[in-house]
Each structure stands twice: as structure tokens, then as C-alpha cells.
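Anyone up for a design puzzle?
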């Protein structure tokens, strides 16, 4: 008898952009004839990835995520303004109210989180002041809508924690977490989850690997960030939701936990956090 693969939840991907030729990464793969969103979803289900969260990064992209999720079972959307896009959204006076309306639209029954939002001081594509303003806006929106959050924080925890701590009741996940043990412990102290993706499979630093082992299982989420961050040994190909299974297997070996336990628990974690 063929064993059914464990049920997995890709809690962070951008597959809703797959058919948008203007998206740079997907455009590259479109040229190679390698992008078919429906085929990607079928491939994901074959390896047990039965639940998927599409994550928005702009007002328009968030709307696209909602529309894509509404066409599929066991798929949901998060609405977010990425820190890279903060200045652009502030420059257009009507954008933020339009974005906020997505969380309140009765037709947007698929919206289960706010984000990807946060601070990115590695690239600084938007001024820090703009990033902070838009982050606060989204925290307040999430609290008002009683939604969890998906945070993107890169080289910016010194500013992020005081902002986070200035609000009560914020819940969510630190997406693509690769940071220090100290910030891991602070996240757990604040009740946040940690999202781990393909980066873990090619991380060489012993300290980073130790950090992945130290994440409490009840706070661990699995993700791909597809089409980015393809796990080893598939580097050089487009990342897809199916690759969350590779990360799950890697973490099972690294942490010394049975794959079924890790898969089941991380799926339960995500199901509770996002209310699905």
C-alpha cells in the first residue's frame, strides 16, 4: 500500500503572481515555459501540501491574492504592503484607504492575515520613516480586524521590537526567520511564530542551524516564499509550494523529530494562527 504523504501547509508563497508576466521572477521562468500555476498546485498536492496561503505585497497584489485564493479550496490570502513598497503607497493618497478596505470587504472571505509587512534595512528601497509609518498602519489595521500578521524583518529588529511592543494583542509570524538566537527567544516570549523556508536547507553557519533546532515545535511554521528561495538540492529552479516538503524533511532530520510529527504539528500551528 502506498503511504499517503503527511499533510503540509505552505504558509507563505506568491503563486498568485505566477500568471502575471510583469513579475520579474515569474517573467524569467515564463520565457523558459516553466510557469503553470495549476500544474504547480497539482504537484504540491501530490506531496501532501494541501493548504496554501498566498501573501500580498502591495494593494494590487493583495487583491490578486484574494481573487486567486477564491478560485481554490484550501487556499487563503494575506493582504500586505511590503516595506520595499512603503514609500510608493504613501505617495498616493488613496492607496492606504483602498488597501484597508480589503480587510473589511465582505466578499474577501479568504483574507486571514495582514502582511507581508515590516522593516527591511538591508535594501532600504523605501526610507525608514516610510517603512515605520506603513508598518504601524498595518498593525493597527490587523488589530482592528482581529487578524494575525506576517512580518518581514531584515536587519531591523532594533527598530521593530519597540514598535511591536507599543501595541497589545498583536499575533503573527516572523516570516523567513534567519536571525539570532536572542531574537528567536524574544519572538517566542512575545508569542510569535517563526516561519522557516528553503534557506534552512543551504544555511552553512552552525549558529543558524542551531537556531533552527531551538525553535519550539509549537511555534514553527513551514513556508516556501515561492518563487524565491528554492531549497537544496533544487537551487537554480523555480521555487514552488511543493518544495515545502523538502524543507519539512530537512528540518525533521536536523531537529531529530519524526516527519509525521513535524508536519502535523506545523500544520496545526498554522491552522490555529490563521483561523482556517
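Challenge accepted. My sequence:
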Amino acid at each position: 500500500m502506498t503511504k499517503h504523504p503527511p499533510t503540509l501547509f505552505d504558509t507563505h508563497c506568491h503563486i498568485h503572481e505566477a500568471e502575471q508576466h510583469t513579475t520579474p521572477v515569474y517573467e524569467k521562468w515564463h520565457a523558459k515555459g516553466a510557469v503553470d500555476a495549476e500544474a504547480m498546485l497539482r504537484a504540491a498536492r501530490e506531496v501532501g501540501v494541501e493548504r496554501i496561503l498566498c501573501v500580498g505585497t502591495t494593494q494590487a497584489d493583495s487583491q490578486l491574492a484574494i481573487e486567486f485564493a477564491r478560485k481554490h479550496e484550501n487556499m487563503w490570502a494575506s493582504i500586505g504592503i511590503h516595506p520595499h513598497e512603503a514609500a510608493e503607497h504613501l505617495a498616493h493618497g488613496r492607496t492606504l484607504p483602498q488597501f484597508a478596505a480589503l480587510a473589511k470587504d465582505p466578499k474577501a472571505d479568504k483574507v486571514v492575515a495582514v502582511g507581508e509587512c515590516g522593516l527591511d534595512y538591508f535594501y532600504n528601497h523605501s526610507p525608514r520613516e516610510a517603512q515605520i509609518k506603513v508598518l504601524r498602519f498595518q498593525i493597527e489595521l490587523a488589530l482592528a480586524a482581529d487578524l494575525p500578521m506576517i512580518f518581514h524583518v531584515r536587519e531591523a529588529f532594533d527598530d521593530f521590537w519597540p514598535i511591536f511592543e507599543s501595541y497589545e494583542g498583536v499575533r503573527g509570524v516572523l516570516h523567513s526567520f534567519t536571525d539570532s538566537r536572542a531574537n528567536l527567544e524574544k519572538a517566542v516570549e512575545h508569542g510569535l511564530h517563526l516561519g522557516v523556508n528553503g534557506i534552512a536547507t543551504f544555511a552553512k553557519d552552525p549558529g543558524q542551524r542551531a537556531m533552527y533546532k531551538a525553535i519550539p515545535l509549537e511555534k514553527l511554521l513551514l513556508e516556501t516564499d515561492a518563487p524565491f528561495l528554492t531549497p537544496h538540492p533544487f537551487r537554480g529552479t523555480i521555487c514552488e509550494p511543493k518544495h515545502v516538503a523538502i524543507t519539512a524533511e530537512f528540518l525533521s532530520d536536523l531537529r531529530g523529530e519524526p516527519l509525521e510529527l513535524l508536519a502535523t504539528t506545523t500544520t496545526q500551528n498554522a491552522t490555529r494562527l490563521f483561523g482556517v
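A detail worth pointing out: The chain has a mean pLDDT of 92.
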